[in-house]
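Hi there,

I know you've been waiting on this one. I reran it after we fixed the sequence typo, so this is the corrected version. Both the input and the resulting structure follow.
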Amino acid sequence: MQKPVSPPCSIVIVTHPAQPHAALEGAILMQELNRRGINAHNAPLNDETARQRVLAGEFDMMIALGGDGTMLRASHISAPAGIPIFGVNMGHFGFLTEISHDDIMDHLDPLLNGEYNLENRMMLRVEHWSNEECVGVWRVLNDVVVCRGSVVRPLRLKAWVDGFLLTRYVADGLIAATPTGSSAYALAAGGPILPPEMRNIVIVPVAPHLSLDRAIVLAEGARVSIGVQANSHDAVMSGDGQAPQPLSEGDTVRVQTDEYSARFVRFEDAGYFYRNITKYMEQNPSAGD
């Protein structure tokens, strides 16, 4: 972690478009920030005007009101702009967020005084190649998944690391995850938990059949390519749980460390990650009572 250079002066508040209570909370927070002399703007995550203003450098901090999904999508906007995210949990599972919405007002003074740390989190650049042409590029914080779609059949996939063939898989899918994503879908598929400050890609097979069934942590800076082989019907790819993109036989998904990093506002000491992961593993809030 590192100390910020200066307290924020201009803040954009982003909310999940499907959570009206988050939008209401954002409006209240915007009024309070304006009252304190901060230039604040409140908008849903899918507001294109707000997105362009962030990328144009009009804000020096983002407050994300929502859950982990909101944090993921907020990072896609904030990382290229180089501004930190302060995550406020409005949902059920807030592993990436910093505080609960009940604690917002108690944290405004230290936030506006710059009394926090910044935590840099590695992101991935994901490219979809088809017929030797790049047909799509995504930036993701958690992971990219190449998997079967609606047809219940395993895929035949190849994985290369830095241009060298690693192995072939017959599996439901293959995950390429960041350290942040190592505690998400990759963990559910049997992968290891990596601390957030690491900068390594981990690849994890999903339900492999007579194939390599272990996760592999790649060296820092390594690049991985996932190729769709013959007889792989209805293959798709998805980055950070976004809408799946169809893949055809011979297509390749190329994954590497992105030039931008997500920057999270943290008030706790560096040991918070291990405390939180233990708490969530022992009392999984998504499992209910």
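Quick highlight: The longest strand covers residues 252-266.

Best,
R. S.
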